[in-house]
Each structure stands twice: as C-alpha cells, then as structure tokens.
C-alpha cells in the first residue's frame, strides 16, 4: 500500500502543507494565511476539509509539523511570538492526534527545513551545518555530527533571539535587540521605517503603498540607493552574527533559507563578505555561506515528511 505523510509548515505569515510519499515526492502542496484563523482548532478543521487530504487519508501513516517554538519532546508550541493564534502553550501534537487519529511529530520550523536540506538539498554530504530561516522571524536548524540538535528541553535553535544590539528594537519575545528584529523580512521593513526621514528623497520605495521585503531587494538590485543601504545593513548584521555563531558549532556551512534568501547571490555575497571580515582567524576559509537549493521544492515540507517516515522506520 502507498505510504504517505501529511507535512505541515506553520509560519508567522503562511501555513504551507502537503502530501509526500516515502520516496520524497511532493504529491500535493497548498498554503493559507496564518492569520486566517484565531485558533489552532480552526486550522485543523480547515485541513480536514481539504479534498486532496480526504482522498488520501487511508494512505497517510503520520503527520509531521514544523512550527515556531515547536518543542519536539513535549509536542507543544511554546510562547511563539510571531504566531497569531492562542498565546502561551499550544499542545498541537495532542490536538492533531485526537482529530486525525494518526501519529504526529512536531519540531521547530527551522529544524524541519534543516532535515529537508540534509535529505534532499545542498547539505546531503555534510555532517555539521546550520540552516538559517529568514522569514517573518529568524530561526536556525543545527546539525552536529550528523544529528539535529534539540537541546535538553527540545528548544535549541532560537538564534533569532540572540540579542545583538543592547537595548535595541523591541522584540515580540519581550526582550530588546534580538537578531530577528533586524535580519528578517519584518526586520528590514523596520529598518526602512527608522531611516526613511534621512534617505527618502532618493528612494523609489516611497511609491509603494504596502511595502514588502521583496520590494526592497528588487529595488536594490535595480540601483535604488536607499534600498541598497537597507540590504547592506541587514547583511552586515546577519554576517556578523553568523561569524560569532561559528565559534559555537564550527559548521561546514550556513545555509540561508526563506524569503530574504531567495534574492540569491546578491544577498548571499554580502552576508559572506561581512561574515569573512569578522570571523575568528582559526575558522577563516573553512565555513561556507550558501543559499538553499530547495526554495522551489520546500525543504520544510520535505523535512517534516521525512520526520514521519524516520520515526516509523519506513
């Protein structure tokens, strides 16, 4: 019988889900805005009504979920600052198992992306690497000695909440100066708003009513000076932070994944420049800054599906 996994990637902006077979083929993929729902239960009921999921339900052997602040050990989303559903602790593994009657695996969304990159992407032959997810926030999936790092409590990898600027920008986690408030899609918009009075006279961004991070990167590559400043500032902060991270785990590579990373070589080269400029001498020329090769395949969906198959030894 065909063996399938229902894979779900919950983000601050979008929830992406799909059906994957145990050969790594994504048979179906769809997405919905996260803020379409006020409660986790509403999202679950939405999935239960999806006609493709219903047509394959008898072949689905498990559910894999990647979520911000997802605790692999407890099966709970714990105090996710960018998730517009219930606040505090959400026992999402329990909810899904009660509704679908299927074994469910939960992990941090960045860990899911790292698992997908390891199985199907640029990290196939690496034992030590870090995937940096650059979306609404910033996350990290860490592989050391060929194993993903969960930590003592299942919450390792919150690199977006390393404080890089003392008393800096307010973060939804309740602290100030966290990396994700600068190096993320929302972070670069905040940089725009903070600097607009100084640089607005030269920028074509002012003509855009609902500005996005993608707009800023596109305009930078087309020669807009203000946009170029914003991209450079974001790359400098991220490159410096990754240089410090190297001293912790000595990875073969940092792999940039997500919306900002999809600007490709333009952004990667700048991050690499600041990274190499600030890295400790003993690590120079040993760690690569790469862009994910799975943006057109969705590493998080593949990674969440892989966690299902691996847990069942299929």
In words, what does this structure look like?
- There is one protein chain.
- By secondary structure, this protein is α/β, with parallel strands linked by helices.
- The protein folds into two domains: 4-114 and 297-311, Nucleotidyltransferase, domain 5, CATH 3.30.420; 124-291, Nucleotidyltransferase, domain 5.
- It is 36% helix and 21% strand.
- It is built from nine helices and 13 strands.
- The strands form three sheets. A five-stranded mixed beta sheet has the order 3-2-1-4-8, sandwiched between helices.
- A hairpin with a 4-residue loop joins strand 2 (14-21) and strand 3 (26-33).
- Helix 4 (109-120) crosses helix 9 (299-311), helix 5 packs across helix 7 (225-249) and helix 7 packs across helix 8.
- The radius of gyration is 19 Å and the shape is globular.
- The mean pLDDT is 91.
What's the alpha carbon Rg, rounded to whole Å?
19 Å
CATH class of the largest domain: Alpha Beta
Strand tally: 13
Tertiary shape: globular
Say which CATH homologous superfamily of the largest domain is assigned.
ATPase, nucleotide binding domain
Listing every helix as H and every strand as E from the N terminus to the C terminus, the arrangement reads EEEHHEEEEHEHEEEHHHEHEH
Helix content: 25-40%
**CATH fold annotation of the largest domain:** Nucleotidyltransferase, domain 5
User: Distance N terminus to C terminus?
Assistant: 12 Å
Q: How many helical stretches?
A: 9
Structural class: alpha/beta
Percent of sequence in beta strands: 15-25%
Across the major sheet, the strand order is 3-2-1-4-8
Report the sheet with the most strands, covering strand number, pairing sense and barrel closure.
Answer: 5 strands, mixed
Q: What would CATH call the architecture of the largest domain?
A: 2-Layer Sandwich
Indicate the mean pLDDT.
Answer: 91
């Amino acid at each position: 019988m065909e063996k399938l996994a229902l894979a779900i990637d919950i983000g601050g902006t979008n929830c992406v889900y799909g059906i994957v077979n145990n050969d790594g083929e994504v048979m179906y993929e769809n997405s919905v805005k996260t803020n379409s729902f006020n409660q986790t239960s509403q999202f679950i009921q939405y999935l239960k009504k999806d006609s493709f999921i219903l047509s394959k339900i008898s072949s689905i052997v498990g559910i894999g979920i990647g979520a911000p602040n997802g605790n692999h050990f407890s099966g709970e989303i714990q105090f996710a600052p960018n998730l517009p559903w219930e606040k505090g602790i959400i026992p999402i593994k329990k909810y899904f198992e009660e509704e679908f009657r299927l074994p469910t695996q939960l992990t941090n969304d960045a860990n899911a992306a790292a698992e997908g990159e390891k199985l199907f992407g640029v990290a196939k032959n690496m034992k030590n690497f870090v995937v940096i997810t650059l979306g609404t926030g910033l996350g990290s999936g860490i592989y050391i000695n060929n194993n993903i790092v969960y930590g003592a409590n299942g919450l390792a990898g919150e690199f977006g909440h390393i404080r890089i600027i003392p008393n800096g920008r307010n973060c939804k986690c309740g602290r100030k100066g966290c990396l994700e408030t600068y190096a993320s899609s929302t972070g670069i918009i905040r940089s725009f708003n903070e600097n607009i009075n100084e640089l607005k006279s030269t920028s074509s961004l002012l003509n855009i009513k609902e500005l996005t991070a993608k707009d800023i990167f596109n305009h930078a590559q087309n020669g807009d000076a203000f946009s170029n400043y914003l991209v450079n500032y974001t790359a400098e902060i991220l490159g410096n932070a990754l240089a410090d991270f190297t001293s912790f785990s000595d990875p073969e590579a940092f792999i940039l994944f997500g919306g900002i990373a999809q600007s490709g070589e333009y952004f990667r080269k700048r991050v690499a420049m600041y990274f190499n400029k600030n890295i400790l001498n003993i690590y120079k020329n040993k760690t690569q800054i790469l862009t994910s090769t799975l943006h057109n395949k969705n590493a998080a969906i593949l990674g969440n599906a892989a966690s299902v198959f691996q847990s069942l030894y299929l």
